[in-house]
Protein backbone atom coordinates (compact mmCIF):
# COMPACT_ATOMS: atom_id res chain seq x y z
CA UNK A 1 0.00 0.00 0.00
CA UNK A 2 1.74 3.20 -1.18
CA UNK A 3 -0.29 6.29 -0.30
CA UNK A 4 1.98 8.54 -2.39
CA UNK A 5 1.09 6.68 -5.59
CA UNK A 6 -2.39 5.39 -4.89
CA UNK A 7 -3.89 8.25 -2.91
CA UNK A 8 -5.97 7.35 0.13
CA UNK A 9 -9.32 5.66 0.71
CA UNK A 10 -11.71 6.06 3.59
CA UNK A 11 -15.19 4.87 4.49
CA UNK A 12 -17.91 7.01 6.01
CA UNK A 13 -21.32 5.91 7.27
CA UNK A 14 -24.03 8.54 7.47
CA UNK A 15 -27.60 8.26 8.55
CA UNK A 16 -30.11 10.42 6.68
CA UNK A 17 -33.23 11.17 8.70
CA UNK A 18 -36.90 10.84 7.84
CA UNK A 19 -36.58 9.52 4.34
CA UNK A 20 -39.72 7.56 3.51
CA UNK A 21 -40.37 7.49 7.30
CA UNK A 22 -37.17 5.62 7.98
CA UNK A 23 -33.52 6.50 8.57
CA UNK A 24 -31.35 5.53 5.63
CA UNK A 25 -27.87 4.36 6.43
CA UNK A 26 -25.52 5.21 3.56
CA UNK A 27 -22.06 3.68 3.38
CA UNK A 28 -19.77 5.86 1.28
CA UNK A 29 -16.29 4.88 0.19
CA UNK A 30 -14.13 7.74 -1.09
CA UNK A 31 -10.86 7.07 -2.85
CA UNK A 32 -8.84 10.26 -3.22
CA UNK A 33 -6.40 10.09 -6.12
CA UNK A 34 -2.89 11.50 -5.75
CA UNK A 35 -3.80 14.70 -7.56
CA UNK A 36 -6.94 15.34 -5.43
CA UNK A 37 -8.56 17.88 -5.29
CA UNK A 38 -7.64 18.75 -8.90
CA UNK A 39 -9.17 15.36 -9.78
CA UNK A 40 -12.48 14.19 -8.24
CA UNK A 41 -12.52 11.23 -5.82
CA UNK A 42 -13.75 7.79 -6.84
CA UNK A 43 -16.94 7.15 -4.89
CA UNK A 44 -18.76 3.94 -4.08
CA UNK A 45 -22.22 3.95 -2.43
CA UNK A 46 -24.00 1.09 -0.69
CA UNK A 47 -27.12 0.96 1.49
CA UNK A 48 -29.41 -1.83 2.64
CA UNK A 49 -32.45 0.44 2.38
CA UNK A 50 -31.88 1.48 -1.23
CA UNK A 51 -31.93 -0.50 -4.45
CA UNK A 52 -28.74 -0.89 -6.42
CA UNK A 53 -30.12 1.50 -9.04
CA UNK A 54 -30.75 4.14 -6.37
CA UNK A 55 -27.21 3.71 -5.01
CA UNK A 56 -25.90 4.24 -8.55
CA UNK A 57 -28.00 7.42 -8.83
CA UNK A 58 -26.60 8.71 -5.53
CA UNK A 59 -23.08 8.02 -6.77
CA UNK A 60 -23.70 9.77 -10.12
CA UNK A 61 -25.14 12.85 -8.37
CA UNK A 62 -22.18 12.99 -5.95
CA UNK A 63 -19.74 12.83 -8.88
CA UNK A 64 -21.67 15.65 -10.60
CA UNK A 65 -21.31 17.74 -7.43
CA UNK A 66 -17.62 16.83 -7.16
CA UNK A 67 -16.97 18.36 -10.59
CA UNK A 68 -18.29 21.69 -9.29
CA UNK A 69 -15.75 21.69 -6.46
CA UNK A 70 -12.57 20.78 -8.35
CA UNK A 71 -9.35 22.22 -6.89
CA UNK A 72 -10.85 22.66 -3.39
CA UNK A 73 -11.21 19.91 -0.74
CA UNK A 74 -14.74 18.63 -1.29
CA UNK A 75 -15.50 15.44 0.64
CA UNK A 76 -17.09 17.30 3.56
CA UNK A 77 -19.24 19.37 1.17
CA UNK A 78 -20.31 16.24 -0.71
CA UNK A 79 -21.43 14.56 2.51
CA UNK A 80 -23.43 17.63 3.56
CA UNK A 81 -24.93 17.85 0.07
CA UNK A 82 -26.15 14.26 0.00
CA UNK A 83 -27.62 14.56 3.50
CA UNK A 84 -29.73 17.48 2.28
CA UNK A 85 -30.60 16.12 -1.18
CA UNK A 86 -30.94 12.35 -0.76
CA UNK A 87 -34.74 12.64 -0.74
CA UNK A 88 -34.78 14.35 -4.16
CA UNK A 89 -32.29 11.93 -5.69
CA UNK A 90 -34.34 8.93 -4.57
CA UNK A 91 -37.62 10.52 -5.68
CA UNK A 92 -36.20 11.10 -9.15
CA UNK A 93 -34.84 7.60 -9.34
CA UNK A 94 -38.21 6.15 -8.27
CA UNK A 95 -40.10 8.07 -10.98
CA UNK A 96 -37.67 7.03 -13.66
CA UNK A 97 -38.04 3.42 -12.57
CA UNK A 98 -41.84 3.59 -12.73
CA UNK A 99 -41.83 5.17 -16.15
CA UNK A 100 -39.57 2.41 -17.41
CA UNK A 101 -41.60 -0.43 -15.96
CA UNK A 102 -44.94 0.87 -17.21
CA UNK A 103 -43.78 1.11 -20.83
CA UNK A 104 -45.74 -1.31 -22.92
CA UNK A 105 -43.79 -4.35 -24.02
CA UNK A 106 -42.23 -4.19 -27.42
CA UNK A 107 -41.90 -0.39 -27.67
CA UNK A 108 -38.67 0.87 -29.12
CA UNK A 109 -37.69 2.75 -25.95
CA UNK A 110 -36.20 -0.23 -24.19
CA UNK A 111 -33.08 1.59 -23.12
CA UNK A 112 -30.70 -0.18 -20.86
CA UNK A 113 -31.85 -3.79 -21.34
CA UNK A 114 -28.86 -6.05 -20.74
CA UNK A 115 -28.12 -9.69 -21.36
CA UNK A 116 -25.94 -12.14 -19.53
CA UNK A 117 -24.58 -15.50 -20.66
CA UNK A 118 -23.26 -17.80 -17.94
CA UNK A 119 -21.64 -21.20 -18.16
CA UNK A 120 -22.00 -23.63 -15.23
CA UNK A 121 -19.71 -26.59 -14.84
CA UNK A 122 -22.23 -28.94 -13.22
CA UNK A 123 -25.37 -29.19 -11.09
CA UNK A 124 -25.29 -31.99 -8.55
CA UNK A 125 -28.68 -31.16 -7.00
CA UNK A 126 -30.26 -30.32 -10.34
CA UNK A 127 -33.93 -30.07 -9.37
CA UNK A 128 -33.24 -27.78 -6.40
CA UNK A 129 -30.76 -25.70 -8.38
CA UNK A 130 -33.20 -25.17 -11.27
CA UNK A 131 -35.98 -24.16 -8.81
CA UNK A 132 -33.65 -21.59 -7.20
CA UNK A 133 -32.70 -20.08 -10.57
CA UNK A 134 -36.38 -19.89 -11.57
CA UNK A 135 -37.24 -18.09 -8.33
CA UNK A 136 -34.45 -15.51 -8.73
CA UNK A 137 -35.35 -14.89 -12.36
CA UNK A 138 -39.00 -14.37 -11.48
CA UNK A 139 -38.20 -12.08 -8.48
CA UNK A 140 -35.90 -9.94 -10.62
CA UNK A 141 -38.26 -9.93 -13.64
CA UNK A 142 -35.66 -11.42 -15.97
CA UNK A 143 -36.38 -13.49 -19.07
CA UNK A 144 -34.30 -15.99 -21.04
CA UNK A 145 -33.28 -19.64 -20.99
CA UNK A 146 -31.59 -22.19 -18.76
CA UNK A 147 -30.13 -24.56 -21.36
CA UNK A 148 -28.82 -28.12 -20.99
CA UNK A 149 -27.06 -29.93 -23.80
CA UNK A 150 -24.97 -32.97 -22.90
CA UNK A 151 -22.60 -31.70 -20.21
CA UNK A 152 -23.04 -28.06 -21.21
CA UNK A 153 -25.15 -25.87 -18.92
CA UNK A 154 -25.82 -22.28 -19.99
CA UNK A 155 -27.94 -19.53 -18.49
CA UNK A 156 -28.95 -16.73 -20.87
CA UNK A 157 -30.78 -13.81 -19.24
CA UNK A 158 -32.19 -10.45 -20.31
CA UNK A 159 -33.46 -7.59 -18.15
CA UNK A 160 -32.63 -4.29 -16.46
CA UNK A 161 -28.93 -3.84 -15.90
CA UNK A 162 -29.38 -3.53 -12.12
CA UNK A 163 -31.39 -6.80 -12.03
CA UNK A 164 -28.72 -8.59 -14.08
CA UNK A 165 -26.06 -7.38 -11.59
CA UNK A 166 -28.27 -8.47 -8.69
CA UNK A 167 -28.70 -11.92 -10.26
CA UNK A 168 -24.92 -12.33 -10.59
CA UNK A 169 -24.45 -11.52 -6.90
CA UNK A 170 -27.09 -14.10 -5.91
CA UNK A 171 -25.55 -16.72 -8.19
CA UNK A 172 -22.09 -16.17 -6.69
CA UNK A 173 -22.97 -15.79 -3.01
CA UNK A 174 -25.88 -18.19 -2.36
CA UNK A 175 -25.62 -21.88 -1.54
CA UNK A 176 -27.21 -23.19 -4.71
CA UNK A 177 -25.80 -26.70 -5.03
CA UNK A 178 -24.32 -29.54 -2.97
CA UNK A 179 -20.72 -30.72 -2.97
CA UNK A 180 -19.59 -34.32 -3.46
CA UNK A 181 -20.39 -35.11 0.18
CA UNK A 182 -23.92 -33.70 -0.11
CA UNK A 183 -23.22 -30.47 1.83
CA UNK A 184 -24.78 -27.25 0.54
CA UNK A 185 -22.23 -25.17 -1.34
CA UNK A 186 -21.85 -21.98 -3.36
CA UNK A 187 -21.36 -21.93 -7.11
CA UNK A 188 -17.60 -21.87 -7.63
CA UNK A 189 -17.39 -23.20 -11.18
CA UNK A 190 -19.29 -20.50 -13.02
CA UNK A 191 -17.92 -18.32 -15.79
CA UNK A 192 -19.48 -15.16 -17.16
CA UNK A 193 -19.13 -15.60 -20.92
CA UNK A 194 -20.79 -12.33 -21.87
CA UNK A 195 -22.47 -9.35 -20.20
CA UNK A 196 -23.60 -6.68 -22.66
CA UNK A 197 -26.39 -4.34 -23.66
CA UNK A 198 -29.13 -5.86 -25.82
CA UNK A 199 -28.87 -4.48 -29.37
CA UNK A 200 -31.74 -3.71 -31.73
CA UNK A 201 -31.09 -6.85 -33.82
CA UNK A 202 -31.52 -9.09 -30.75
CA UNK A 203 -34.97 -10.44 -30.06
CA UNK A 204 -36.35 -10.03 -26.56
CA UNK A 205 -37.32 -13.19 -24.68
CA UNK A 206 -40.84 -12.79 -23.32
CA UNK A 207 -40.53 -15.62 -20.77
CA UNK A 208 -37.96 -17.69 -18.91
CA UNK A 209 -37.80 -21.39 -19.87
CA UNK A 210 -35.70 -24.38 -18.86
CA UNK A 211 -34.85 -26.41 -21.98
CA UNK A 212 -32.89 -29.54 -22.83
CA UNK A 213 -31.32 -30.03 -26.26
CA UNK A 214 -30.11 -33.35 -27.62
CA UNK A 215 -27.82 -31.97 -30.33
CA UNK A 216 -25.74 -28.84 -30.83
CA UNK A 217 -27.80 -27.72 -33.84
CA UNK A 218 -30.90 -27.41 -31.61
CA UNK A 219 -29.00 -25.23 -29.17
CA UNK A 220 -27.62 -23.15 -32.02
CA UNK A 221 -31.15 -22.64 -33.38
CA UNK A 222 -32.25 -21.24 -29.98
CA UNK A 223 -29.52 -18.60 -30.23
CA UNK A 224 -30.26 -17.91 -33.90
CA UNK A 225 -33.97 -17.37 -33.18
CA UNK A 226 -32.97 -14.74 -30.63
CA UNK A 227 -30.69 -12.98 -33.15
CA UNK A 228 -27.64 -14.12 -31.16
CA UNK A 229 -25.76 -16.16 -33.78
CA UNK A 230 -22.47 -14.31 -33.14
CA UNK A 231 -22.79 -14.85 -29.39
CA UNK A 232 -23.27 -18.57 -30.01
CA UNK A 233 -20.33 -19.01 -32.40
CA UNK A 234 -18.01 -16.99 -30.18
CA UNK A 235 -18.69 -18.71 -26.86
CA UNK A 236 -20.39 -22.09 -27.26
CA UNK A 237 -18.15 -24.18 -29.59
CA UNK A 238 -15.04 -23.63 -27.35
CA UNK A 239 -16.99 -25.29 -24.49
CA UNK A 240 -17.13 -28.55 -26.46
CA UNK A 241 -13.38 -28.90 -26.62
Automatic annotation (TrEMBL):
Q: Does the keyword Cytoplasm apply?
A: yes
Q: Which PROSITE patterns match?
A: RWD (PS50908)
Query: So which domain of life are we looking at?
Result: Eukaryota
State the SMART domains in the record.
RWD
Gene Ontology cellular-component terms for this entry are: cytoplasm; nucleus
Q: Where are the transmembrane segments?
A: none
Cellular compartment(s)? Cytoplasm; Nucleus
Q: Where is each RWD domain found?
A: 1-89
According to its UniProt entry, the protein's GO biological process terms are: positive regulation of hypoxia-inducible factor-1alpha signaling pathway; positive regulation of protein sumoylation
SUPFAM superfamilies according to UniProt = UBC-like
Name the PANTHER family for this protein.
Answer: RWD DOMAIN-CONTAINING PROTEIN 3
What is this protein's record name? RWD domain-containing protein 3
Say which species the protein is native to: Acanthisitta chloris
